[in-house]
């Protein structure tokens, strides 16, 4: 257990109406005695004058809250000083706190780290909290709140307990095999249950992409020939002037992204360099980046203007993208100047290609395009009732768990105690997601995501 008392400004940028300075650790009661003359009753706001104990100098008037261990966020004694949010006020209070013996500024995520160390939260809840602080859309907020509330952790912990129980049953039967008149019957039931659980986890895994997409946002990439109107589309969808638009082919070289909230779903829309064969060096690099983004996209919007340039090069590119499996929509741009045939991309036989016509000049078709994107996002993300895995880390250990389970199930010729060992490995994989099993190497990575004061 830590001997240090940590402190930090836990509220946002200064100046602000109110600023919250939080302290956690064993010296909290003593520090409160020193700076405000006593420890207020737990969980009751008390208006106090804060003073520098060295000089008696008045620092500010603040609302002081005290949370007695273990009933606090960190599980330690915690206090929150709600002071005035002026830069000089906060700076002076932090300076006085620094001078208290045993007190030091908190590192990023250190309050949460203490909460985890004292088992106030499991790792999935910690991640949910980080996601809640980072949430930009309604969908993200809801998902993060559920995860912080422990839904995902409980699901994994439930599975882990089932695995531990199964292993105990196998071992009990093994130990008492001589006395049992129907040997093997308990084990048979255990393996049926193990096979059910494996299927349950695999189903959860197939849906995990949704959770990750909701957390990190859908990637929608604008591609097409130079001057097709990609940057104009980005600006029109974002509703502000993000990318430079000129009549010169090859205006956009680097990839440019905007983060959008489409009906509560996060979407990153990426503008790219127009694809063409005879590009200069900078533009070539831009084209390489465009293709790279296209390959990992959730959706490509392929912009085609009424009189397309270089139909052959464009069609070759489009052809290879269509076989890559990334969903692709054709956006016929500049509809205000009429459809003149231009480059007509060939429809693929699967019929997954959707066509949308629009103009950024008179905004014809723009609302339709934005609506279609919102529907696409909601379908791709499709958040249901069951909690979803939200990180690659979760998926990794879930796969480990299923692999161990399936290994055990496939080895019916082996002695039960060897197969039971796989059940232990499967349970440990789940324990690593919630942080119940040695995850020391993971912790720094997870807590680094946090800001100071959380
Ligand atoms: N008439 C008409 N012109 C448009 C429309 N959208 C864009 N343009 C014009 O088309 C030209 C190219 O537009 P951009 O948005 O720069 O095209 P781009 O695909 O980003 O071009 P690069 O970045 O060079 O590949 C500009 O002169 C735009 O003003 C439209 O809806 N109607
Ligand atoms: K252009
Ligand atoms: Mg452009």
From TrEMBL:
Keywords: Cytoplasm, GTP-binding, Hydrolase, Magnesium, Metal-binding, Nucleotide-binding, Potassium, tRNA processing. It is found in: Cytoplasm. GO terms for cellular component: cytoplasm. GTP binds at residues 227-232, 246-252, 271-274. (6S)-5-formyl-5,6,7,8-tetrahydrofolate binds at residues 22, 80, 120, 454. CDD domains: trmE, TrmE_N. The keyword Zinc does not apply. One of its GO terms (molecular function) is GTP binding. Its main location: cytoplasm. It is an enzyme of class 3 (hydrolase). Belongs to the TRAFAC class TrmE-Era-EngA-EngB-Septin-like GTPase superfamily. TrmE GTPase family. This is tRNA modification GTPase MnmE.
